[in-house]
Amino acid sequence: MKKLYISGQITGIENEAPLLFESAEKKLKALGFDTINPITINHDHHDKSWVNYMREDIKAMCDCDSIFMLNNWMNSKGAIIEHTIANFIELELMYETHFDKWYKNHYTKLNNWYKKNNVEQLHQQNLNEFKTCLLLLKEDIKMVCDANLITVPHNYQQYKHHSARHYVALCLDVDIVYTEPQF
Predict the structure, then answer these.
(1) Where are the domains of the chain?
(2) Helices in 72-123 by DSSP H: which ranges?
(3) Global pTM exceeds 0.70
(4) Domain 3-148 belongs to what topology?
(5) Which residue of 22, 58, 62, 168 shows the fewest CB atoms closer than 10 Å?
């Protein structure tokens, strides 16, 4: 079962947002997805700042396989950040606008193709190595969410892993120390 994080605007529509997220969650659960709704995440921290909410939400998102973008996601700084991080950690992106059509056509055809061609068995070693790299990146992003300071090499842009850490640190006001690359 795929674990799916729901992303969308919360700030500015605090009264409407729970209904939007709950509606999406019910629809996705009915299709068999295990969902993570950021509104229902336990935000058990003393400082109720936007950054601290984002820290918890990003950590929860890193435990998912997919992200579901509500129609209003482009109106939200947080959802845009989550979308960018989802791209870094290669979560499957799903959009509410096209979801019904996408699910019916793409997801069903893709699952049938995987079963027919035994893709999991043919590429298991490469797939495992790829999943391990993504798992390490997800864990590193979670650590950045809890950090006050991180280090990245000056040439961080050349490496996806360091670029992701740098981006998350910038978004969450984590201090960054740039170091010379070690060889």
Answers:
(1) 3-148
(2) 77-88, 99-102, 108-117, 119-122
(3) yes
(4) Rossmann fold (3.40.50)
(5) 22
